[in-house]
Amino acid sequence: MNTKKMTSTEADLYKRICDFELDSPSAIFPFSDKLAWEYQWTGIYTYRVIQEYKKFVFIAMIADHVVSPSTPVDRVWHLHLLYTHSYWDEFCGQILNKALHHSPSLGGKQEGLKYRYYYLQTLEIYQKYFGTPPPDIWHSPQLRSEKISYQWLDRHQFWIIPKLKIQIQNLQKVNSALVSKTVVTLVQEVVDFEAIRNRILLELKLGRQASGYKTVQKVLNRLIAELKRIAESL
Predict the structure, then answer these.
(1) What is the C-alpha to C-alpha distance for residues 230 and 234, in angstroms, rounded to an integer?
(2) Second label for 5, Cα 20 to 30 Å away, from 95, 147, 228, 231?
(3) With 0-12 CB in 10 A as exposed, 13-18 as middle and 19+ as buried, what is 214?
């Protein structure tokens, strides 16, 4: 898609933002390394998100409405705010020449809808100036881009083991299926009812000509049919 050409003022602002270094040359553990370490990002992904953060800041400066970042971009913003001298004195004071405050959501459905609208507006401006945003950094619009159950952990002190999600209903289904399979297998593959019937008749010493033979045989056949019916219905 065709992108909107920046005015000379916009181009100058964007260049100043892009030229701003978040990493201090004297830092042993610079901004980008800390960002990558905290969120377990690769170096390349960290670099890309920082560039998207700078695009977002540009959008925030030229937009005439509230804008909202994606989750990865917001993480860069959060960390930058902790570097108070870099953010307020150098970035806002000398590069933007204007304060850029971070206003988080107050929570709740209405706030979620409001910020979803802000986010859509932000994406619209992004597309006008920069084209299609990278989907691995700018997520699809939704009420929330990160689960509220996220917590910080010291991975040197704790092991992180995924919680097993046990669903009782599924276990009941599996258990029922196993029972059914066991019964059916027992009936169809293990138990030879006809052989059992013949053995019973033999042990009763009822010859085919005996008066009670047909009656007993009929009862046993009925029993066999009933057992098979029950097994097949499980």
Answers:
(1) 7
(2) 95
(3) exposed
* Cα(60)–Cα(131) distance, integer angstroms: 17
pLDDT in tens, 166-209: 555 555 565 665 555 554 555 555 456 677 767 766 666 656 66
CA dist 23 and 182 (Å) reads: 65
Asked if residue 90 lies in contact with residue 46, where contact means CB atoms within 8 angstroms, the answer is no
pLDDT (tens digit, 9 = 90+) per residue, 108-124?
878 778 888 999 999 99
Helix spans in the chain (H):
8-19, 31-39, 43-62, 71-82, 84, 109-130, 168-185, 193-203, 213-233
Structure token pair of residue 125: 């401006």
Side-chain half-sphere exposure of 147, counting CA atoms within 13 A: 4
Q: Please give the structure tokens belonging to residue 18.
A: 């892009």
> So where are the chain's domains?
8-130, 168-233
